[in-house]
Design brief:
alpha+beta; eight-stranded mixed β-sheet; globular
């Protein structure tokens, strides 16, 4: 069996896909000149053509043909990302002169509704024109809420006079990089507007996004009319249609703590249920060539229909495509076909949407599916229960275990936590989820036609109610949730290397395979030692961007000292900014101190001036830190102290900071406002 699996790696498509993926990573990381990449693609095509001709003439041993194939796949991947990335398109709004400097008349089409913020309704919008020039690209449109609380339909054409704002990098160290997240979705800017400032066109752009949105709205409206409880309805809409906008933060937190947050967004799990259910319904059809083909067509049509109901969100499209290829592979019944099918699905999905490669859901879905295919049959064969109930429970446990093993390093890398009760969660909720999915799809299909039978909708509502209750009970056992786990890229690669070699050895033990396991353990230890060594040699002094408060840390290796006022010091364990910083730097909080008016770090002298206005006049500081809006004349202060740098944190009023910035510019002294530029670090 081991050699059968290893043949997959010898399959040319596996290596072509690997080269293609590497090619996507190149322009993503380096952002090269597109003309250079296309020139290299042309050269690689010539090299491929010549080596192919020579291999046909048997003038060489086909080595050059193999090399040219992988080089060509690499540059096809690179050009694919460039072609599909808005950043490289000349028509994109980021290349429009002063778009980020002053207001322009921006014409957009609403494409997708996002979760509202406290003050704004939020949409993904497609830019059509800027002033009189045709343009393109995606933005986040923030429409300030008013008393009318008007909601716009998807497909609405709007004209807005406003200034685009570039996505801001993280305001504090080690924070989630939301700007990078948006960039991976081809969104490079946001636009803010009042509803009264928006001109609404009488026309609608009636494309597939418009019709799928109308379908979802109709389904939700019909369910609301049937007195479907609002809390359960919001979860139902997430489970079946992947729309999480209206779920309360408390419910999302419960699902995260229970290790079940993945079921709130339509993904491979949901599409897998649909595939299994439709396959079960089609069992009476004969397994002839014609019957098998009819089954395949019905399965593909069912998955596509579900994708439409779920609103064609990226995760839905990805999962539908993935399981469509699984269904096609099953229909063809070829040797080791499921692995080849996965490779084909990855290659084709990335050909049309290369940015999916950087999507966490894409990575987790394929990693889970690969481990289920690769490892689950082996674990399932360790015990063959004769009782059907025992077999069902055993299958759930093995599938859950291998999926969790496969995605564990990625989950810790992205989310820094591990739900210890994921076994219990999956054992309980997967049977219940199958009922929820079955009832949900039927109820929502009927709701699309305006018919919501009470004998189906009520069991659907109750099943979600009990699902939420079970999840809440599991999530309440917080002692089983391991949180704040430091984890970096080196650990991620090392752990996957260890898991892979251990499974290879476990499948068919041998001395050489055991040696590989031991080498991977040594590599993991080296990564730990290297990380520890790097951390211990680091020293830094950080002023955080903490709204209305001052927070400073001094880090010496893995030990951190926090300087803040009493209220921050008392709640430091619950401070998300500080916790994220400690996790990102593999550090622990050793000491907590109140802020003083002077500080010294790495030979630098620092004056910290707060609302009291007290400072040391005999000290010529390297840095002047302004906090709590001190009432000072900065010109006069500069005559007494002569700082080389002025820093203002987010505890100061914005109007005063503008005056300070102008004064520093006049005096030619560098000025850093954390509210504008993010945290300030001295190292």
């Amino acid at each position: 069996m081991y050699f059968r699996y290893m043949k997959v790696l010898q399959f040319p498509l596996a290596r072509i896909t690997f080269g293609f993926v590497l090619g996507i990573l190149l322009p993503y990381s380096l952002k090269p000149n597109p003309k250079l990449v296309f020139a290299l693609l042309f050269i690689s095509i010539l090299f491929f053509s010549i080596s192919y001709f020579l291999s046909k003439k048997k003038l060489n041993d086909k080595v050059y043909f193999g090399i040219s194939t992988y080089i060509l796949s690499f540059f096809i991947g690179a050009t694919t990302l460039i072609v599909h990335t808005d950043y490289f398109q000349k028509s994109n709004y980021i290349h429009y002169g002063s778009i980020f400097e002053k207001p322009h008349l921006v014409s957009v089409t609403l494409r997708e509704k996002l979760k509202n913020s406290t003050f704004n309704d939020r949409y993904v919008a497609i830019v059509n024109r800027i002033d009189q020039t045709e343009s393109s690209g995606r933005i986040i449109l923030n429409i300030r809420k008013d008393s009318l609380n008007r909601q716009f339909e998807i497909g609405t054409l709007l004209r807005i006079k406003g200034t685009l704002y570039k996505n801001s990098p993280p305001n504090n160290p080690s924070q989630f990089d939301y700007s990078k997240y948006l960039e991976n979705k081809q969104i490079y800017a946001q636009l803010y507007a009042d509803a009264s400032e928006i001109s609404v066109s009488s026309e609608m752009e009636k494309n597939i996004w418009y019709y799928t949105s109308k379908l979802r709205t109709k389904i939700i409206h019909n369910l609301e009319k049937s007195d479907f409880n609002k809390t359960e309805l919001n979860v139902a809409v997430a489970l079946i249609m992947g729309q999480q906008q209206d779920i309360s933060p408390e419910i999302i937190r419960d699902y995260q703590y229970a290790g079940a947050v993945h079921i709130l967004s339509v993904s491979g799990l949901h599409i897998g249920f649909i595939l299994l259910f439709v396959t079960f319904l089609l069992k009476p059809l004969p397994n002839t060539k014609r019957g098998s083909f009819i089954k395949l067509i019905i399965i593909l049509a069912s998955l596509s229909l579900f994708g439409l109901i779920a609103g064609l969100a990226p995760s839905v499209v990805r999962s539908v495509a993935m399981f469509s290829f699984v269904a096609i592979g099953s229909h063809l019944r070829r040797s080791v076909n499921v692995y080849h099918t996965l490779l084909v699905s990855i290659l084709l999905i990335l050909l049309f949407q290369p940015s999916f490669l950087f999507d966490v859901g894409f990575q987790l879905s394929y990693m889970a599916l690969f481990f289920i295919i690769w490892l689950q049959p082996l674990l399932a064969s360790l015990w063959l229960p004769k009782n059907k109930v025992s077999k069902y429970i055993w299958d759930i446990l093995t599938v859950s275990f291998v999926a969790q093993i496969g995605t564990l390093p990625l989950s810790i890398y992205y989310f820094h936590q591990f739900p210890g009760l994921f076994f219990v969660t999956n054992l309980i909720i997967i049977p219940l989820l199958s009922i929820v999915m079955l009832l949900g799809v039927v109820v929502m299909l009927l709701a699309a036609f305006g018919y919501v039978p009470l004998f189906l909708s009520k069991p659907f509502e109750w099943s979600i109610f009990y699902l939420n209750k079970i999840i809440n009970s599991i999530a309440s056992l917080e002692q089983f949730i391991i949180q704040n786990i430091p984890f970096n890229l080196y650990f991620l690669i090392s752990f996957y290397l260890l898991i892979t070699t251990a499974i290879i050895w476990f499948k068919k033990p041998s001395y050489n395979k055991l040696a590989l396991v031991l080498i991977s353990i040594i590599i993991l230890q080296i990564s730990f030692i290297k990380n520890r060594s790097d951390v211990e040699t680091q020293k830094e002094w950080v002023v955080f961007n903490s709204k209305k408060s001052t927070m400073i840390t001094e880090r010496n290796g893995g030990k951190v000292t926090l300087f803040a006022n009493d209220s921050i010091l008392k709640t430091s364990q619950k401070n998300n900014i500080l916790t994220t910083y400690l996790i990102g730097n593999f550090s622990t909080l050793e000491t907590k101190k109140r802020i003083e008016n002077t500080a010294f770090f790495n030979g630098k002298k620092i004056i910290i001036l707060d609302s009291s206005g007290i400072y040391s006049k005999n000290m010529n500081p390297d840095i002047l830190l302004l906090t709590q809006s001190p009432k000072i004349n900065l010109d006069r202060l500069f005559q007494t102290v002569h700082p080389k740098m002025v820093v203002a944190d987010a505890s100061n009023y914005k109007t005063i900071q503008k005056y300070w910035k102008a004064t520093c510019k006049k005096q030619k002294i560098p000025f850093h406002a954390t509210g504008e530029k993010g945290f300030y670090k001295l190292n």
